Model the fold of this input.
Amino acid sequence: MARRTGRPSYQLDTAAVGRRRTARFAAVAGVIALVTGLLGGLVGYQVGRPDATEATIASIKQAEAKRDAQQIVELTETARRVRDQVAPVLAAIKTETTGGRAPDATQARQWQEVMRRAAEPFADPPSGTTATNVARGGLRAAVQQASLAVDAYALAAGVPAAQRAAVLDVAARQAAEAATIWSVAATQLDQVSVDAGHGHQHVFLDTDPHGGALTPDGAAEGTGG
Done:
């Protein structure tokens, strides 16, 4: 009986070697893929992770935003108190300078004291963001202009009658300018309050709408933050 014909022994050895080589190549390829993936993830993490400088900047910005939000609350409270001091004086100057009455020197001195107290909160202002500093600076400028109006009224009390009308006219125009400056500052304060999440805060004077001063928008108080 004849023997079954099979593959020569050298062919069997070659096939086995080929399979082993394929297995080794596959293993090596897997290791390379794994290492490449790990390296890629590490590189991506290093690239995406903020460095120390960026982290410090972000921390500073966060602290500034928190500080400014608190400053806006405090500035709004200050503006309300100062408005309640200044508004009656500006309204009285308008009445006194257009009523044809002689200026009252005693009343002028009282108003000057009111203006001195109104200016105190702005004597040493804190440093905030540019937008908040603009609002604060505008309120301060309005108080300073109102003080000039009062000083002009006081000056009118001591000048001859022939010159009185001209000085009172200057006082009236300065008072109107103070109200206009205040309205600009109040508009800025309203905007930074909304931006900080506190909503609309309308700290405006009760002025003549035809006098050139800005007026509050129609948004409800405290909304829009």
About this structure: Residues 52-98 form the longest helix (47 residues).
